[in-house]
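Renewal narrative, Specific Aim 1. Our central claim is that a sequence can be written position by position from structural information alone. The example that follows is taken directly from our test logs and has not been curated for this report. It begins with the structure tokens describing the chain, in the order in which they were read.
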């Protein structure tokens, strides 16, 4: 092959590869950032999915109640660090604008000689939101709590395995024998909805001397989860300081990168796509400039401008298609490289001096990256349409030049 022709072929191939690479980069960034943004948003929802809630509310204690002194007495007590919602306050939360459903629960710590276990009193009638919503899908044996139940309990799977418990066995709580009626597991739940034992809330209130309807956790479902901050702010104005576990608070626990990615994924993806197309435009403009002589010759031998334009647009579409396929592959690889990334979750069980907690199930979570057909289609569409439009603009400009001028300039 003629050395000059070979040189031109290599040069133009390099330019064409630059176009494909630019388009691929834009498509890859768009797809990867879109998938990661969705993954961080999903990761913030999953810890609350097990309790079917958008918010979990507690009331922080003040003064000496916030301290965790050495526990010297045995038996059940309320946790250190939070205080009670009255029955009226629980109704006020349920009636707050934007709240669609709510359920109260009562967390109790039951102390033994050298350890303690977490007991959660729940309302057997509240199945739409709260711990029972997750336990319904996680029941392994026996049954769940039912209306009218007395001193019975559902044991967490890990707790039951630790002590070798099964339905029909008994366990002591507050000097009373509780019959195990079921073994269940809270899946995909934060530790706000996880306990070693679940008992009827009316029985739990009696163990710690509370009145009917008094709780220390409220699970809330909202008509619009994005308004959780506004709902918490309104409730704080009416009830005083509250602690809220929400999608936003979980993102804060995950760290700054997750918040930025979740909030601005769409903007970042769009900017990535634009940046990639800008690189493709630069490469394609150089390629068109180098092919002006070719265009002039085509016009000199009778090609019409629309035919030349059609030919170059078809070529650009092919380059855009190749760039889109390559970009999708790169974007998927980038996104799934984060799938094994462990994310921190909120631990609700404190470390008490001189006591060991009976282990609660770990609330570990990896970044749940999911393949999005819509994002893949959008990335491919951006690549093809962007590449075609870029080629059309460049070819249109080149075909406007007169044949004599093109050949003379060359």
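The sequence written for that structure reads:
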């Amino acid at each position: 092959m003629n050395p000059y022709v070979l040189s031109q072929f290599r040069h133009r191939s390099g330019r064409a590869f630059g176009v494909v690479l630019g388009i691929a980069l834009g498509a890859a960034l768009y797809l990867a950032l879109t998938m990661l943004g969705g993954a961080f948003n999903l990761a913030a929802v999953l810890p609350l999915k097990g309790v079917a809630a958008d918010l979990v509310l507690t009331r922080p204690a003040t003064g000496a109640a916030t301290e965790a002194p050495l526990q010297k007495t045995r038996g059940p007590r309320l946790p250190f660090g939070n205080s009670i919602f009255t029955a009226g306050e629980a109704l006020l939360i349920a009636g707050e604008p934007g709240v669609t459903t709510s359920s109260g629960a009562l967390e109790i710590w039951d102390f033994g000689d050298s350890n303690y276990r977490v007991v959660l009193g729940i309302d057997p009638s509240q199945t739409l939101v709260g711990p029972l919503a997750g336990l319904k899908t996680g029941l392994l044996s026996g049954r769940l709590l039912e209306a009218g139940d007395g001193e019975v309990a559902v044991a967490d799977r890990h707790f039951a395995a630790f002590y070798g418990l099964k339905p029909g066995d008994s366990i002591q709580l507050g000097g009373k024998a509780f019959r195990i009626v079921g073994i269940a597991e809270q899946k995909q739940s934060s530790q706000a909805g996880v306990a070693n034992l679940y008992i009827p809330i009316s029985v739990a209130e009696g163990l710690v001397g509370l009145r009917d309807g008094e709780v220390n956790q409220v699970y809330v479902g909202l008509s619009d989860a994005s308004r959780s901050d506004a709902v918490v702010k309104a409730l704080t104005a009416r009830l005083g300081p509250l602690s809220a576990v929400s999608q936003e608070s979980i993102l804060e626990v995950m760290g700054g990168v997750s918040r930025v990615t979740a909030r601005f994924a769409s903007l970042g993806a769009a900017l990535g796509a634009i940046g990639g197309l800008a690189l493709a435009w630069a490469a394609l403009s150089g390629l068109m400039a180098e092919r002006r002589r070719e265009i002039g010759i085509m016009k000199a031998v009778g090609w019409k401008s629309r035919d030349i334009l059609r030919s170059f647009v078809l070529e650009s579409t092919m380059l855009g298609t190749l760039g889109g396929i390559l970009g999708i592959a790169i974007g998927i690889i980038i996104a799934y490289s984060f799938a094994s990334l462990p994310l921190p979750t909120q631990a609700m069980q404190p470390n008490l001096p001189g006591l060991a907690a009976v282990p609660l199930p770990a609330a570990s979570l990896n970044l749940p990256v999911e393949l999005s057909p819509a994002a893949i289609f959008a990335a491919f569409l951006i690549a093809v349409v962007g590449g075609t439009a870029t080629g059309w603009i460049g070819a249109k400009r080149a075909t406007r030049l007169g044949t004599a001028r093109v050949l003379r300039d060359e």
